[in-house]
Amino acid sequence: MMSAIIGFPQNFLWGGATAANQLEGAYNEGGKGLSSADMVVYVPKEKRTEGHAIEITSRQIEKILAGELDHERFPKRYGIDFYHRYKEDIALFAELGFKVFRLSINWARIFPNGDDALPNEAGLQFYDHVFDELHKYGIEPLVTLSHYETPLGLTHKYNGWAGREAIGHFTRYAETVFTRYKNKVKYWITFNEINMMTVSPFTAGGVVIDRADNKLQTIYQALHHQFVASSLATKLCHAIIPGAKIGCMLARLESYPATCSPKDVLKALHENQLNLFFTDVQARGEYPGYMERYFAENDIVVRKETGDDEILKAHTVDFISFSYYMSLTISADPNGEKAEGNLFGGVKNPYLETSDWGWQIDPTGLRITLNHFYDRYHKPLFIVENGLGAYDKVEEDGSVHDGYRIDYLRRHIEQMKETIADGVDLIGYTSWGPIDLISMSTSEMSKRYGFIYVDQDDEGNGTLKRSKKDSFEWYKRVIATNGEEL
C-alpha cells in the first residue's frame, strides 16, 4: 500500500520573484533602450481613473517622447536601483536561504530597439554579473524572457506583438541569451502572465490598442504571435542548453460560481476556459475547441501561417508556472456586488476577507488551482508569484511588524503542503516580491510585498536603504526547515 507524501520534497525550490522593470532602474544606463514599462506615468490615488496605469494611447507616447510630460514621474524607470545594488540585495536573498531567484531580463537592455543588428554587450555583461553573484551563493536563477518589457522600438515599427515581425526579433533575442547564459541558467519562462494581453495589451505586448480597428482581433492575433514565439523559444532552449527546463506563465484566476444556479456554474466554467486557454495552447500544443465558438461570436479570425500549428504541437513547455493572488467569484446576474481592487472583475465572495487593495484572500483556492492544473496537464507546476500587497508601518526603531504578511503566506504554504499530499508535482515557490519594489498595476511604492523594506515612498523620496521586516526571519526559518516550521 502506498503512503501519502508528507511535506515538501528535499529538492523543493524556495525563493522570491521580481521583474526588471519594477526592480532595476537605470533605464538610460548601460546602453539600454526604452521599453513599454518606461512609458508608465505615476498617477496619485486620488486622480486615478479605471485603466490609468496599464493602458497608454498613441498620443501619450508622442507627448512623452516629445518631453511634454517631463514634469511627471515614471517610477518604473528608477525601480529600487537593483542595477547598482544587486550585490547587496542578493546577499540578503542568500541570508534568507533562497534556492532560486526569479528575475527577468529586460529585452531592451540586450537589444535597445528590439531589432538591432547586434546585441548590447554592456547589457549582456550586467546579467553575467547578476548570475555570477547568484551562483556565488548557490542560488539558481529562474529567468523570464519577457516580463512586461517590450522594446519601444517594436511598438513604433510594428505596434509591438500585433505585428508578426516581433516573432523573429524575439527568437533572435532568446537565442542570444540562451547562448550567452547556457552555463549559468537552466530554468526559463517565456512570457510573464501571457493572459494579461487581454486586459492591458500595451503592458503585455507593447500594443497600442487605439491603433487597432478591432480590439479583440488585434489582441488575439498578438497572442498567436506570442504563442508561436514561445514555442520557437522552447525549441531553441532545448537545442542550446541540454537539460534546461522552460515553462509558460499564467495569471491564474480560479473562478467559482456565485451560486449553484446552472447559469452561474456555466458562466464560471466559461471564465475558467478563457483563463486556461493560454496554458492549453502552450502545454497541450493546440487551440482548444471551445475557443472556436468564442472567436466566431466575437468576429475574431486568427491569421496563421503555414506551419504554425505544427510548431505549437511540437514544442510544448516543460512545466507550467503561474501567479496566484486571489480567486474570482462569477455571477450571471449583472447586478451582483462587484469585487473591488483587481483587474479581472468578478463579484464579492462573502466567505473571503480582502487585502488593503481589495484583493480577495483565498488560500484554499491555491490548492484547488494546483489540483485543477495537474489534473488537466500532468506537468510539473511552479508557483512563481504569490504574496500580499499591504501598507507597512515603520516603527521608531526601524522595525516593521508585518504579521499580516506572515499569516497570508503561512496559510498559502499550508495549502501547498496539502496539495503535495494530494499527489500534485509542485517543484517550487517564489513569493512576490521578496524586496519592496514598484507596483505593476499602480506604480506605487506603498503597495509593499517584501520581506525586505526599501526606504522609498510613492513620490520617489527616500534613501533606498534596505532593512529586514519581521517576515524576513519567518521566511528564513520556513526555507531552512523546508516548510516544516510555519
From TrEMBL:
PROSITE patterns, per the entry: GLYCOSYL_HYDROL_F1_1, GLYCOSYL_HYDROL_F1_2
Q: Which family does it belong to?
A: Belongs to the glycosyl hydrolase 1 family.
Identify the Pfam families for this entry. Glyco_hydro_1
Q: Which UniProt keywords apply?
A: Glycosidase, Hydrolase
Q: Where is the active site?
A: E385
**Protein name in the entry:** 6-phospho-beta-glucosidase
PANTHER family per the UniProt record, alphabetical: 6-PHOSPHO-BETA-GLUCOSIDASE ASCB-RELATED, GLYCOSYL HYDROLASE
Species per Swiss-Prot/TrEMBL record: Paenibacillus haidiansis
Q: Which InterPro entries match?
A: GH, GH_1_N_CS, Glyco_hydro_1, Glyco_hydro_1_AS
